Amino acid sequence: MMDMTFRRHRRLRSSANMRALVRETNVDVQDLIYPMFVEEGLQGVTEIGAMPGVSHYGIDEFRREIVRISELGIPGIILFGIPAEKDDLASSAYAEQGVVQTAVRAAKQENPALIVMTDVCLCQYNPAGHCGLVRDGKIVNDASLELIAKTALSHAAAGADVVAPSDMMDGRVQAIRETLDAHELTDVAILSYAVKYSSAFYGPFREAAHSAPSFGDRKTYQMDPANVREGLREAASDVEEGADMLMVKPALSYLDVIQRVRTSFDVPVATYNVSAEYSMVKAAAAQGWIDEKSIVMEMMTSFKRAGADFILTYHAPDVARWLAETKGTY
C-alpha cells in the first residue's frame, strides 16, 4: 500500500465554494477611491488620450459622473484640478472659486455621503510644473509650505473630507494640520502621500494633469525607487506631524513597500494604482493580449494582500461593476 505521508492541499481548492470559503484576501467596492480630473472652463467631457476610459470633466458633466459612480457604490473620489490660469505663486490652487474648490462643492451637492479627497499640490498651478515654489531654478521647501497649507485649507473649507498632500515637501503635513486646526477644521483628515517615488509609471498622468515639469525632474523631492528604509522614515515623520493615513505610490512595483509600511504603522494605508499601471493594462487588453478583468482583479487582490486598506485606482468603475456581478466581493 502506498505511504500517504504528503499533505493534500488540493482538498481546499476542490470547488468554487470551497475556494471562496478559505479565501484569505477579498476585494470589496468599499476599498476603491476613484481619481477624477476636473478642468476649469471645459464644456462637456474629453477623453485623455494616454489613459483610455479616463476623462477631463467640465463641472456639469462632473456632476453627472458623480451620480453614476455613486450608483456603482464607489465610496469616494480624489480630485485633481486643471486650472485655466497658472502663475508663479500657484494662486489658482488656493482660490476660493478655484476648479477643485468648485468641484468639491458640486460633488457634495450631488452626494453628501461621498468621501471627497483632494490632491494638494502646486504643480498643476504654476508654469514650472513643480510641486513647490521655484526660485533661481531651485524648488524651495520652507517657502512652499505656507501655500501648500493654504491650498489644503481652501479645499477643506469647500467641504473636502480628506486632504492629500502629494508635493513631498518636508514638513507639509505639520503645516497643514496646524492650519486646519487653527481654523477649527479638526475633522478633516490628512492622507499623506508619504512614500511617493520618482517613478516612470507617472507618464500618462502628466498629460492628464497638464503638469510636466518645464525643467529638470522631481528627483530632489520624490523618492529614489531603490529605497525602502527611506520610505519608512518619511512615513514616520508624517505620522508624527499629524497624518491620519499613509499612501504608497506607485502600487504595482512597490508591493514590498506597502507591506513594510503596513507592518510598521497602525494607521490606515492606501496605495495608488497609477496612470501607467492602468494604461499598460488598457493597451494590452485593446490588443487582445490579456484578459482585462482577470488581470485587474489580480492586481487589486495583490494590493490588498500586501496590506493596503484601500486603493486609488482608475479601474474603480470597472471593478465596481465586476464586483456587482459577483455580489460584492472578489
TrEMBL record:
<dbReference type="Pfam" id="PF00490">
    <property type="entry name" value="ALAD"/>
</dbReference>
<keyword id="KW-0627">Porphyrin biosynthesis</keyword>
<protein>
    <recommendedName>
        <fullName>Delta-aminolevulinic acid dehydratase</fullName>
        <ecNumber>4.2.1.24</ecNumber>
    </recommendedName>
</protein>
<keyword id="KW-0456">Lyase</keyword>
<keyword id="KW-0350">Heme biosynthesis</keyword>
<comment type="function">
    <text>Catalyzes an early step in the biosynthesis of tetrapyrroles. Binds two molecules of 5-aminolevulinate per subunit, each at a distinct site, and catalyzes their condensation to form porphobilinogen.</text>
</comment>
<dbReference type="GO" id="GO:0004655">
    <property type="term" value="F:porphobilinogen synthase activity"/>
</dbReference>
<comment type="pathway">
    <text>Porphyrin-containing compound metabolism; protoporphyrin-IX biosynthesis; coproporphyrinogen-III from 5-aminolevulinate: step 1/4.</text>
</comment>
<comment type="subunit">
    <text>Homooctamer.</text>
</comment>
<comment type="similarity">
    <text>Belongs to the ALAD family.</text>
</comment>
<dbReference type="InterPro" id="IPR030656">
    <property type="entry name" value="ALAD_AS"/>
</dbReference>
<dbReference type="InterPro" id="IPR001731">
    <property type="entry name" value="ALAD"/>
</dbReference>
<dbReference type="InterPro" id="IPR013785">
    <property type="entry name" value="Aldolase_TIM"/>
</dbReference>
